[in-house]
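Researcher: We plan to redesign the surface later, but first we want a full-length starting point. Tokens attached.
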């Protein structure tokens, strides 16, 4: 394999885009981006509860928060991949940080205008930035080192996401909900100008967490501007054995290749289902707790999301332990099946046990997103299509916009938030079947398995 030496920085760039060794500092810098989108995503769960009361929304309308968020991911992923292709992963990451900063800044005028649509604009702007970050960082993390450890690297980076989720929910719990108590109960006794004025006062609280996030984002942007980063892109080899320019196939050529790649398409659809499953469980866990226990406050209910993210983090560690010793797809088949059981309990047991079952579901989410991601990326044999392929997998996050909306509709139509959890249960059943089919295929064709 033709190699391009990067002697000054200590790594060797290989022709397939991977590196001879992992540059530790650069890898850690990329990994620290992961919790930043976790914080933004978990804050959405707080905003959904806040907006529902202040703007008097039904469950379907509250799902527009996730629609704006994941819709931004969907629309920008391909443009982000084109930026990576024409420039670099580093440039795409910096672009993402800038849009994230802009989105957070829009919360300041949004809190003054005090309209639902203005907040959706701010969330959409943040999503544009996160689409750049996730499109670049998910693939970049897997490429920063030897190919055989690609899944291990991405799983390590993704393990930091729950820490961002926990940080986001804590910021929301103490800075947005604070000592307000049960906002819905309090505002139910207000009318007219009094209700509007109090609602606007509550919307001012949404500014608080984004002030702290802005400081972190600006610091990260400065660091990335100063630190040299590997290109980690596939190159072609000339007839004389020298390294040619980076291969840049057209978008049309790439789409044609990927469209005829059955394994890749199956993985993308599975990621779509998984993104919707994870998002919808987290979007409505707080609402489920408030519905089943009318005596708890919004702040107390948000604590259940902290438990969910802790469970997710621990689940990742446990799953990583088993995946290092046993079959990856076999491990996640078991995790997914137990997740289905947890969600069945969630929509059938009519007491707070349902909330704890929803929390347990997060444990079984484990490292499913990064595993599906790298598993799907493995189906791209021609590595010159990697950037766009990674972007299309990120586009599957649109499931986080569609499936919560479906659950919201089911809740409105049936009049039962709890019963609507049948939607993620069906999603998890599909995920279980996906991992089981992949496990059976690998048992029959062990030569296709990659070292991880």
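Model: Full-length starting sequence:
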């Amino acid at each position: 394999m033709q190699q391009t030496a990067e002697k000054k920085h200590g790594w060797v760039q290989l022709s397939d885009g991977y590196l001879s060794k992992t540059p530790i500092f650069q890898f850690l810098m990329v990994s620290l981006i992961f919790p930043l989108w976790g914080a933004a995503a978990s804050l959405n769960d707080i905003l959904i509860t806040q907006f529902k009361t202040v703007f008097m929304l039904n469950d379907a309308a509250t799902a527009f928060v996730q629609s704006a968020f994941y819709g931004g991911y969907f629309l920008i992923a391909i443009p982000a991949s084109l930026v990576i292709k024409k420039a670099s992963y580093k440039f795409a990451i910096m672009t993402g940080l800038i849009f994230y900063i802009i989105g957070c800044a829009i919360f300041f005028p949004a809190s003054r205008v005090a309209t639902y649509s203005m907040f959706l604009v701010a969330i959409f702007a943040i999503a544009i930035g996160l689409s750049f970050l996730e499109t670049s960082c998910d693939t970049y993390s897997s490429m920063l080192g030897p190919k055989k450890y690609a899944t291990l690297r991405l799983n390590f980076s993704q393990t930091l996401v729950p820490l961002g989720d926990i940080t986001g929910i804590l910021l929301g719990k103490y800075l947005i909900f604070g000592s307000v108590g049960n906002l819905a109960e309090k505002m139910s006794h207000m009318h007219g100008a009094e209700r509007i004025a109090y609602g606007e006062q509550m919307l001012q609280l949404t500014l608080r967490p984004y002030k702290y996030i802005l400081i972190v984002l600006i610091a990260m942007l400065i660091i990335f501007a100063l630190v040299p980063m590997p290109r980690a892109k596939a190159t072609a080899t000339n007839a004389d054995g020298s390294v040619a320019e980076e291969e840049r196939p057209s978008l049309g050529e790439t789409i044609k290749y990927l469209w005829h790649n059955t394994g890749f398409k199956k993985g993308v659809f599975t990621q779509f289902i998984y993104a919707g499953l994870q998002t919808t469980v987290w979007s409505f866990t707080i609402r489920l707790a408030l519905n089943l226990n009318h005596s708890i406050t919004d702040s107390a209910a948000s604590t259940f999301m902290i438990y969910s993210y802790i469970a997710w983090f621990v689940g990742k560690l446990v799953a990583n332990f088993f995946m290092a010793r046993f079959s990856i797809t076999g491990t996640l088949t078991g995790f997914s099946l137990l997740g289905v059981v947890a969600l069945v309990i969630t929509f059938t047991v009519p007491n707070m046990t349902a909330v704890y079952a929803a929390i347990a579901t997060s444990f079984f989410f484990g490292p499913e997103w990064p595993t599906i991601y790298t598993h799907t990326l493995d189906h791209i044999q021609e590595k010159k299509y990697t950037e766009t392929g990674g972007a299309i997998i990120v586009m599957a996050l649109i499931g986080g916009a569609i499936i919560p909306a479906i659950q919201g509709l089911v809740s409105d139509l049936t009049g039962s938030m709890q019963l609507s959890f049948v939607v993620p249960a069906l999603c998890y059943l599909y995920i279980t079947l996906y991992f089981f089919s992949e496990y059976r295929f690998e048992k029959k064709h062990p030569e296709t398995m990659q070292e991880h």
